[in-house]
Amino acid sequence: MERIKEVADSMMISNLIYMAQESTCEAVRQRYLDQAILLMKKKREGRQAVNYRNLIFDLDGTLIDTERAVLKTWQFTLKSYHYYYSLDELRCVLGITTKNAIAMLHVTVDTQFEEKWIRNYERFAPEADFFPGTKEMLLTLKSRGCSLGVVTSRYREEYDKYFRIFRLEEIFDRIVCSDETAKHKPTPEPLYKYAELEAADLSSCIYIGDMPTDIECAKNAGIAAGLVLWNHSGILCREADFLFHTPEELLELL
Length: 254
What we know:
The chain is α/β, with parallel strands linked by helices. Helices cover 45% and strands 11% of the residues.
């Protein structure tokens, strides 16, 4: 009977997230999300909480608000190849590698594209910053003795050039970049790489991101998945185990 209730609750949560995703009214959308989050919390009540000691985060759109900087860079770089997109039309490239984004856009570029993109990002990089409350949340987790890491689709060169300013090495134990694995999100290889380097038990890990590819990556690796809503992107994913409206809500998980 308990198992049946658990399955029924999971279906209800999935349906609520789906209805929120399909809703065109923000107030109704929010009510569906609130109900989904409430059911998620009730599912955890009365049960021993999983000891998530390894919290792994996506970077862009999850901790650092880079969306406009990234989209403007794509727009600017593609113009040099005589492709003209609005920022909204380019949202499909968020959260995936440059190679996959080029394939998705069906554009023809040369071998210098990535180099140009990285160079052009410098124009817009100053627009990026921590989402409100995320840095404080990370420091609180660190003070509690949690192991913190990053798995990102950014190349190491991009990270070194544009993210050192955030001094993330003072917070995170490990940062895995895109060029450190042969395969990328949504395959599980980046998370497996992180677990290998940190000697982390996968059952103690949770991966937190802002895109369906992040959730799929976590699921493919067999670990818990958290979707952040604090970036106000409107993106939802029914497969997420947790939804976080604010960074403070993530602290309640532990």
